[in-house]
Amino acid sequence: MGIVTPGFQGRPRAEAPDLPPGQYLTPDFPVLSAGPTPRVPRDTWEFVISSETGTEYRWSWDEMMALPQETPTVDIHCVTRWSKLGTTWRGVSLDTLLDGVDTAADYALAHSYGGYSTNLPLEDLRDGQAWLVHTYDGDDLPAEHGGPARLLVPHLYFWKSAKWVRGIHLTVEDTPGFWETAGYHDYGDPWREQRYQGD
Amino acid sequence: MTALPYVDGNMLDGPLGEVFAVDLSTATARCAHCGTTGPVAGLRVYSHAPGLVGRCPTCVEVMVRLVRAPDRAWLDLRGTTFLQIPIP
């Protein structure tokens, strides 16, 4: 009998070099939702950034589409442990949307059609780290994946990438969102496995 | 007049243990948003999510959220005005 046990082949999934700890790779794109899927027509869709002073910056669909567009290819990591590598999206950088927004806020609360919300530091939306995306893999973003437009913040767990995003409140104080008020981590860095409060 | 004394949360173990040991599917809940009162079993529960989300069958607002970590759980009932539980 050989020293190497034949059953021990390959390496454990958790040691895959591109995966954060505790994640597994999926070729699928699982659909997760905390409620019914909103159906938002583009002609009534809008995106609003509101500052801590109450000033609002508003874009219609056509105005958003007229902004410079980017095509990020990124890895995404869901807190329910699936990861998907090399996903390609198209949309507007949050740097573009925040350009010209006068704010001294440190935090952002993204809010969605349907009532979902999630919080993150404003600096995590800047410097090429976040997008408002309307296209996935070359096609219009389906409603079940957050269309007509969702947030994409791939360096944090995917619950931070709010589906059906409608706007962002900029705030001086951190305001926990839908899952952050129910046990999930305030920041959610997958590489530090910040799944739950206290992780 | 002397303020009433209070005791620590250990006092709740018995009463809450009695409540949460029962089958909540036979309980009745009132929605804090629209006032609809009905069986917990009638809630709409979204389970393909990072936690369980129970929504009112009338107004679809969130009535209960339950998040389960390996060693902890969080129960958020802010959307529920009351639970009425049959206790023989």
TrEMBL record, chain A:
Q: Which domain of life is it from?
A: Bacteria
Checking Gene3D superfamilies in the record gives: Oxidoreductase, molybdopterin-binding domain (3.90.420.10)
Organism encoding this protein: Micromonospora andamanensis
Which Pfam families does the UniProt record give? Answer: Oxidored_molyb (PF00174)
- InterPro entries (alphabetical): OxRdtase_Mopterin-bd_dom, OxRdtase_Mopterin-bd_sf
Query: Which protein is depicted?
Result: Molybdopterin-binding protein
> In what residue span(s) does the Oxidoreductase molybdopterin-binding domain sit?
35-179
Region Disordered: what ranges? 1-22
UniProtKB/TrEMBL annotation, chain B:
- Pfam families per UniProt: DUF6510 (PF20120)
Matching InterPro entries: DUF6510
Top-level taxonomic group: Bacteria
List the protein's name: Uncharacterized protein
Q: Which organism is it from?
A: Micromonospora andamanensis
